Predict the 3D structure of the following.
Amino acid sequence: MAAAAAEVPNRRVILKRYVTGFPSEDDMEAVAGATHLVVAPGSTAVVLKNLYLSCDPYMRGRMSKHERPSYVPDIVPGEVIVGFGVSKVVASGHPDLKVGDLVWGLTGWEEYTLVPDARSLFKISHSEMPLSYYTGVLGMPGLTAYVGLCEVAKAKKGDSVFVSAASGAVGQIAGQLAKLTGCYVVGSAGSDEKVNLLKTKFGFDDGFNYKKEQDLNAALRRYFPEGIDIYFENVGGAMLDAALLNMRVHGRIAMCGMISEYNLEQPQGARNLSSLIVKRVRMEGFVVSDYFGEYRRFEEDMVGYLKGGKIAYIEDVAEGLEKAPVALIGLFTGRNVGKQLVAVARE
Amino acid sequence: MAAAAAEVPNRRVILKRYVTGFPSEDDMEAVAGATHLVVAPGSTAVVLKNLYLSCDPYMRGRMSKHERPSYVPDIVPGEVIVGFGVSKVVASGHPDLKVGDLVWGLTGWEEYTLVPDARSLFKISHSEMPLSYYTGVLGMPGLTAYVGLCEVAKAKKGDSVFVSAASGAVGQIAGQLAKLTGCYVVGSAGSDEKVNLLKTKFGFDDGFNYKKEQDLNAALRRYFPEGIDIYFENVGGAMLDAALLNMRVHGRIAMCGMISEYNLEQPQGARNLSSLIVKRVRMEGFVVSDYFGEYRRFEEDMVGYLKGGKIAYIEDVAEGLEKAPVALIGLFTGRNVGKQLVAVARE
């Protein structure tokens, strides 16, 4: 039988239980499975062979039990972990996708994924680029940096920009785009090695290791004696509170993420919100999926920057699906240097 | 001598010391003084006879010692307290102001005030209205409500609007303007009497006494089962945290004030800021002086609303300059019902 002949082994990583507090490798498990590499006649589903999986901080939030739905699907105990990835189409009933097409979008942490609704997939236009870049600089994190800086924070030449988690997937791109816009850019990161990258590789004007600062308010005052026009917020907690004290009049805080708070039962909170009033600051949260309509324009711009050497990019690649849980958890201790991803297959 | 003849007694209220924590009547003191009712030849100063003085929550902030200047002048120990008021010009070297003109703007807590720079004064166009209204619905608090709701929060028909401190000077106007815009409006206040006013006098759809609620999150969920589009923020603290949990996607928080925090050594802080991201909420602080250029348009609109019976207004008048300290302090315990002001003279 044709269908039986097309059944192949399919290793997958499942969530074992809802996570509370800090996630551990033991919350996830690699298990054996099998899948068919064909789609039913009349279906518009596609089957993907996963090449690269993306480890992103927002995934932690999806591993907790929620009362209300969010903008991304929950990850459910006993089921495969869902996240962004780069994949090759190996079977398709969808008119716009054919076998062999390369795509990025929501997929499963497994070797092969059946995607019932291909609308969440983007075809990769530039397969001459390293395909793994579509988990980062050319994918969701890159677009996040782009819209956060340009559309939410409305960066313009001469702005003083502070980026936290600045060597991460989003931060490194946000900072470089700010430099290209003509801004003064300082980033924070959690190791001297990362801070060095900011200054030598990514062209930031300056950077500091937040773990070495006794007083984050004083640190920001040192780097921004005239204040901050734009805070590209990736971490929350004490850094947000310090940034609030250092904002300039009519400053903007683009709220991209708050990784320091994702594993806390009770968030630390921000005490200096009255700065928003005194300095007339706009603090705005955003979610990249609201901007997916701008992806093609972004992709062309970013491919141009990469080919022209105007944007540098660093990724941290874990080899093999089994490494995915450890790689994901490493985001929350800052183990990764650059964009964390997992290579499952190289075509 | 003419100058000596023009010298008159001038009682004044001074700040005795910088305030820390909750202010007390004893932080201020009424003292005797004298002033000249003439301006020097060639000067563009004006001398005002003060009729009504405004008690506003922002003034508390100006009574503390500050490292950095703010958008309003500090109030300095040993000197007269500065605030908004309604006054009559009794001497003028300024080409645009003549004796007998009625004005509102920054003045002193005293019977007569010499204003060196008359640019901070607005001539009163509608002296047929109760003059005290120019400390509230037709003055700074009214304009605050107007720009906060229309320009910062961008209220539109059908929005669900929550106003805290809703019977206060700004809240009562913000809520009524939202009703005129076609919004669903619920307010919170600190007594059943005030909540009753919201519903019977100001036409709010509903209101609640926050002091009687065990769980502010549950209270807001009860009044806004579909969530809040606009939070007009006057109080900060626990109410802000509850509102954050109840915002709708693309909601707006107009940060007008945080009266619950003004007397705290350490602000309570907001723990639910990740809602800004999940719900793509814009939280924006504003300061009314940035919008003084819109005052004339506002004044005409609001006079029309008042004359047409479309906006109701309640004020709480303390009689006599000596009552000003107690009246100001009462704002922070919620003793006032409606806009708190002090009548110094009635012309």
In short: The domain at 2-136+313-343 of chain A is CATH 3.90.180.10 (Quinone Oxidoreductase; Chain A, domain 1). The first strand of chain A starts at residue 7 and ends at 9.
